[in-house]
Design brief:
single chain; 3 domains; two-stranded antiparallel ribbon; disordered N terminus
């Protein structure tokens, strides 16, 4: 049955359609259809009515599928080529190194050049790198140095993509829809992470890791094509200066905002502490919960929590964004405490769902808030330092958690981790600049001046 909107039947008979609106010849029937589509679309999905965001989201959703497949394939490729855990460790270490080196550079170039151009170039480089290593693996000619080189190049290109992507999304959607836009971007990644690793494991078992890399290369091509179709108004061209001067300007954009740099420090401590869950969780599962199957269920619940957090971020628009987001981040302490006891598997899973929902909510609110408070001309550089602190904090955590648990015990280490997961996120709300960030009546995020 067709519905009726302002006297127009849907679906109507094509022969009955006027080619334009009788009162305005510039309004075609296609425009009427699009207007009706926008009225029917739920508010949470309203960013998809904007062409640029719709293209960006589609390309990134396809690319996210490939991204969810490659970690499993990379691990088995390293073991197949290098024949040792040491080879696997070298590949992962080089991956982090490439990203850390590239992030500050990527931030500078993403503020110098059109951001979609930086992202498009990164996609083409990563497509070529994964296509090449995939073909080498399929033909049986891959060597360890080639796998290490691809890990370095792939993550170096990714270090340019991340800050450019964080700064481009606000250019594709109106500010009032930015949180929903981020949530939609995050949900596409979360859904792919739920089933992607399992599918990758099947593909590796049936056809080998090389085909997974080829599939990922194809998804990067899809992402690049969507980026090429974007029509983004250019930002004002920045005055050309020395690279290091521009990098210093980005650092000043971070450090001159006390609320921002303290939030980054708090988030770095969170990233440092969460490593205790990943390092000690499998040990607890093996000793007390029945083995790897229990840890598999717990890890899966983290993905479910990400989906839940993204769905909440689609609908909940907090009046005090940074207060609500940091409160949500404290929920991660529950999973460390549940493991410390240890609680039954189902309770640990519930804690992980809640904790990862809180993390995802923080991410979507954070990346919708920061672009409205930091000037667009330095946003990519500021974002690169955000990613850099997170990347540095996690390897430090992975290096320290194991020895710490050997000296003070696993339960004590997890309790201390829970403290670091919760306390900094509570203390950050004592900062006036954090409390003064609010959403106004028009839905825009602003920062009220602190009282004298």
């Amino acid at each position: 049955m067709g519905s009726c909107v302002e006297g127009v039947r849907y679906p109507p008979n094509p022969h009955d359609l006027p080619t334009s609106h009788p009162a305005d010849p510039n309004v075609t029937y296609v425009t009427l259809l699009l207007d009706n589509y926008r009225m029917r679309l739920p508010a949470a999905l309203s960013p998809l009515t904007e062409r640029n965001f719709r293209l960006l989201w589609t390309g990134q959703a396809v690319s996210a599928i490939g991204d969810s497949l490659t970690p499993v394939a990379l691990a088995f490729a390293a073991l197949m080529v290098g024949h040792s855990a040491t080879a696997l460790g070298v590949v992962f270490a080089v991956s982090i190194l490439g990203r850390v080196i590239a992030l500050p550079m990527g931030g500078v170039w993403a503020d110098r050049l059109p951001r979609q151009l930086v992202m498009l170039t990164s996609d083409w480089v990563r497509a070529a790198v994964h296509a090449a290593i995939g073909l080498l693996l399929i033909t049986g000619h891959a060597q360890l140095w080639e796998l290490v080189t691809q890990a370095l190049l792939y993550n170096f290109a990714g270090g340019f993509f991340q800050p450019a992507s964080g700064a481009l999304v606000p250019q594709t959607v109106t500010p009032q829809k930015l949180q929903q836009a981020n949530a939609l971007m995050g949900l596409s990644k979360s859904f792919s992470q739920v089933g992607g690793p399992a599918i990758s494991g099947i593909l590796v078992a049936l056809a080998g890791p090389g085909w997974v890399f080829v599939i990922d290369a194809i998804t990067f091509v899809a992402s690049a094509l969507s980026l090429a179709l974007l029509k983004i108004p250019p930002l004002a061209a920045p005055a050309q200066s020395h690279f290091w001067q521009e990098l210093a300007e980005g650092w000043r954009a971070v450090t001159s905002r006390r609320w921002y740099v303290l939030n980054l420090a708090s988030h770095a401590l969170w990233n440092f502490a969460i490593t205790a869950v990943f390092v000690l969780g499998p040990i607890i599962a093996a000793r007390h919960l029945g083995g790897s199957s229990a840890w598999g269920l717990i890890a899966g619940s983290m993905g479910a929590g990400q989906v839940l957090g993204g769905l909440i971020a689609l609908r909940v628009m907090p009046a005090r964004p940074l207060v609500a987001a940091n409160l949500a981040l404290t929920l991660a302490a529950l999973q460390a405490l549940a493991l410390a006891v240890p609680s039954p598997t189902v309770l640990i899973m519930a804690a992980c769902v809640v904790g990862w929902a809180g993390l995802t909510f923080l991410n979507e609110v954070w990346f919708a808030t920061v672009p409205q408070l930091i000037p667009q001309e330095v946003l990519a550089r500021a974002s690169s330092f955000d990613w850099l602190l997170s990347l540095i904090a996690m390897p430090l955590g992975f290096a320290i958690v194991g020895p710490a648990s050997d000296h003070i015990g696993i339960p004590t280490t997890l309790v201390l981790a829970a403290v670091l997961l919760a306390v900094p996120s509570v203390l950050i709300m004592l900062v006036p600049g954090v409390r003064n960030v609010r959403r106004n009546s028009e839905g825009l995020v602003i920062q009220e001046p602190s009282p004298a």
